Amino acid sequence: MRKTVEANERAKRAYVHYLEQAKGLDEKSTDKVLSALLKFEQSTGFKPFKRFHIEQPAKFKTDLAKAKGRTGNPLSGSTIDATLALVRGFFEWLAGQQGYKSKITYSDTAYFKNSLKAARAAHAKRDKEYPSVEAAYHAFQAMPDGSDFEKRDKALFAFFMLTGARVGAVASLRLKHIDLFHGKVLQDGRDVNTKFSKTIDTTFYPVDPAYLACFTAWVEYLRHEKLFGDQDALFPKPERGFSKGGGFVNLGLSRDPYSNGSKLNAIIRNAFAMVQLPEYTPHSFRTTLAMLGKEMCNDMEQFKAWSMNMGHESMAVTVGSYMPVSRQRQAELIKGMAR
Fold first, then answer.
1. Other C-beta atoms lying within 10 Å of the C-beta of residue 188
2. Dihedral angle sign, alpha carbons of residues 230, 231, 237, 241
3. Which residues pair with 233 in a beta bridge?
4. Which burial class, exposed, middle or buried, applies to 308 when counting CB atoms under 10 A from its CB (0-12, 13-18, 19+)?
5. Rounded Cα–Cα distance for residues 100 and 12 (Å)
6. Cα 226 to Cα 239: distance, rounded to the nearest angstrom
7. What is the pTM (predicted TM-score) of this model?
8. Residue 156: which H helix or E strand, with range?
9. Exposure string (b/e) for 256-280, b if CB count within 10 Å is 16 or more?
10. With helix as H, strand as E and coil as C, how does 20-41 read?
């Protein structure tokens, strides 16, 4: 059983309430805060926050540097930097709370800052990896489509290429959100898990027709063969039950969606792995589509529409986040200007 300090737990609950109600953070974001604070408490041996000392952040940094992630590898510089920032934010808030003002000062929280060298390394830009249009199509074509789950997985791949939607949103989609007649999906922020609960009206991108054919066949299969209705999941999870020999087995398609995007991530990564390509994630498709838009759009108005289709209010977000220029390409462009 995990050790807890009652006063610490009260402070953390109050901070989470503040983040959710005053800052508008969702549960996924506050869970990251609580995870970072638990790491800090483990580093201090679960000392009460009121017994804070400036030596604790120094030890915490050392412990993070020695820690390993889920894969067994050391934590990345960006993960360490983010963890320190989350804990620092908590103590900055705590320094202004009744009962802690005399124990913690705002200047004390500066000890949680990463070294300048480590911070620069953590935020250094690296060449972004993403599948080319050709690589994505190769992986898609190699996917089987015999069973219900194989049909689902292949249609899922097609949908990511058609929309560039975020994996969390896709996991929560239901059939009512799909409009095949107009070739679009309405990511309704009221019941779809979009970023910042934004409503995004996405028209299918002009990618290879095989993607649309596959996805259309899947939707029609759900509606006409499986008799799914508007409220049923677009990409349903398995229906689990007991087999005659004992133990749980998949009985077929459920009508419920997955609670998060982890399974969908695994499906796409595996599709690339099966053809000996890097295990690209669904999110990397957004870069693939942004780079495709750069080639296909003939003017700023078209690119603005392409950017809006990804859910961006500003083209600067699309360019800055999803249109990388590799170091090699950077050098080629600069040398080309000289010629």
1. 19
2. negative
3. 174
4. middle
5. 13
6. 13
7. 0.74
8. helix 148-163
9. ebbeebebbbebbbebbeeeebeeb
10. HHCCCCCHHHHHHHHHHHHHHH
Amino acid identity at 155: A
Task: Provide Rg for the chain, Cα atoms.
Answer: 24
Alpha-carbon distance of 241 to 232, in angstroms, equals 19
Phi–psi pair at 178, nearest 5 degrees: -100, 130
Report the relative pairing of strands 178-179 and 236-242 from DSSP bridges: unpaired
Q: What is the mean pLDDT of the chain?
A: 91
Q: Regarding predicted confidence, which is higher, 330 or 154?
A: 154
| Residue 306, helix vs strand vs coil | helix
SS3 253: strand
Question: How far apart are the C-alpha atoms of 196 and 194, rounded to whole Å?
Answer: 6
Give the whole-angstrom CA distance, residue 28 versus residue 262.
13
Among all chains, which residue has been given the structure tokens 């508007």?
A: 230
Backbone angles phi, psi at 306, to 5 degrees: -60, -45
What pLDDT score does 196 carry? 82
The answer to whether 88 and 112 are in contact (CB under 8 A) is yes
CA pair distance 108, 88, nearest whole angstrom: 9
pLDDT at 103 over 80: yes
Residue 211's region, left for phi above 0, alpha for psi from -120 to 50, else beta, is alpha
| 184-187 sheet: strands from edge to edge | 178-179, 184-187, 200-203
The span from the CA of 189 to the CA of 259, in Å, is: 16
